Amino acid sequence: MKENQEELDQEVTDTHPDPEIDMEAVEDSGVSEIEAEEFEIENLKAELEEMEDKYLRARAEIANMANRGKNEREQLQKYRSQDLAKKLLPSIDNLERALSTEVSDDQGASLKKGVEMVLESLRHALREEGIEKIPAKGEAFDPNLHQAVQTVPASEDVPADTIVEVLQEGYKLHDRVLRPTMVIVAQ
């Protein structure tokens, strides 16, 4: 530690020689002592301004780094559940398919009720994390949110670029699309 301090002191001495004015050199050059001191003051002022500028730039860079770090942490926090949601979406699709089957006996109805409860629990958990379905049926087609897999002719009841049917639900996390909605669009 002491050696490092001595090395630093030596570097400072080497890069910034002692500001005292060599009087013999001043007398030999024909410049007055006052002029030499004024010249030295100007040099020191310029050096001070340069150091102040470096200090302010370093301080601004540190502030920028802190802001970037804070923004990155906020983004990570906001979208932390994205990967888990993408992995759960196929399971939700399967549960929805299971609910669409017809049952004829009490045992099947009980099983269907249990699947319904599990699905609702998953949907509730997703909503708490900011994950929601992308509205589609009857809406205007938006290529940022929807994926058209088929088109049908437009009619008087259904204007062009309107979603007629949803083939697979899409989901978004806040403003980020996790999976676009697969739709049939009227053209």
Automatic annotation (TrEMBL):
Principal cellular location given in the protein's record: cytoplasm
This protein's UniProt keywords: Chaperone, Coiled coil, Cytoplasm, Stress response
InterPro entries per UniProt: GrpE (IPR000740), GrpE_CC (IPR013805), GrpE_head (IPR009012)
Keyword Coiled coil tagged: yes
A cellular-component GO term for this protein: cytoplasm
GO biological process, one term: protein folding
Location of the region described as Disordered in the Swiss-Prot/TrEMBL record: 1-21
Domain of life of the native organism: Bacteria
Residue ranges, compositional bias (Acidic residues): 1-12
Subcellular location: Cytoplasm
GO MF entries: adenyl-nucleotide exchange factor activity; protein homodimerization activity; protein-folding chaperone binding; unfolded protein binding
Pfam family, one: GrpE
Keyword Chaperone: yes
Coiled coil: 31-82
Protein family according to the UniProt entry: Belongs to the GrpE family.
Subunit record text: Homodimer.
Primary role: Participates actively in the response to hyperosmotic and heat shock by preventing the aggregation of stress-denatured proteins, in association with DnaK and GrpE. It is the nucleotide exchange factor for DnaK and may function as a thermosensor. Unfolded proteins bind initially to DnaJ; upon interaction with the DnaJ-bound protein, DnaK hydrolyzes its bound ATP, resulting in the formation of a stable complex. GrpE releases ADP from DnaK; ATP binding to DnaK triggers the release of the substrate protein, thus completing the reaction cycle.
Protein name per its UniProtKB record: Protein GrpE
Lineage, top ranks: Bacteria, Bacillati, Bacillota, Bacilli, Lactobacillales
